Fold:
Amino acid sequence: MAPPQATRDLDNPYVHQMPNNHILCAFRNHDLGNGPKEDPTWYRITITTSSDLGATWNFLTQAIEMPGGADGPWEPFMQTGIDGNTQLYYSKETGAGGQDSIIRETTDNGAIWTPERVFTGLDTNARDGMLGVARVAKDSPTKVAIFESGTDGHFIVQTVRSTDDGKTWEPTRYTVSSNPGWNAGAPQIIRVGSTLVGSFGTNEKGGEWPESAMALKISKDGGETWTDETVVHELPAMWAGLIGLDDTTFLALYETGGTSYAQKMRLG
Structure:
């Protein structure tokens, strides 16, 4: 009998339409070992491409790959810069509970990526992860990155700002959701008109983390302050996401009971 073989851990996909109308899909693509924890033996963020609106896909590149161990990349996100370059964001473990937020760019539609730049986590031992990014206005160089940040097993949701389209990031962290009694994480952010909408999972009303309900907050000052919380769906509503429809409406997305749902919402 052949010995057990490592398996692939395919998850965290993110699709992004390029200025040339091709679509990129970035996702984690890790090899798993055979131990009780199935720790990754090899890490990858793989990028595939489609030129026919997603009907067929082809391998493009490994944006990052590295040996397994305590440290590895997770949860890619992409956005087109004002200069037309495509920006790739992901989280990268640093050992002992730490994780940094990374940004890279491509000028050739995803084939080659610039070296990593850390923009949160470098000066902390917090576990920053599950990134999302939104501009404060159309074509504005000012944008906000949202992420969960965890220490000692407790997770909160925070943001940081860039005023030069991601070249540099301000050190100030703005807190979206934080309470010692529960966790908040797996966030996402979009702009709806002139308002930023942030979503996240929270177990404030019960559940063993990361089992959570989906909650929303909004910001009208570019992410510096956030409104009181609105619960979109009670526990369980996992891995919340957002899609803007127009200047007043958006979709709130979540999974419950193994089924995915999209709920249309309107700003008041």
Summary: The longest strand covers residues 7-17. The chain has a mean pLDDT of 92. The CA atoms of residues 38 and 217 lie 36 Å apart.
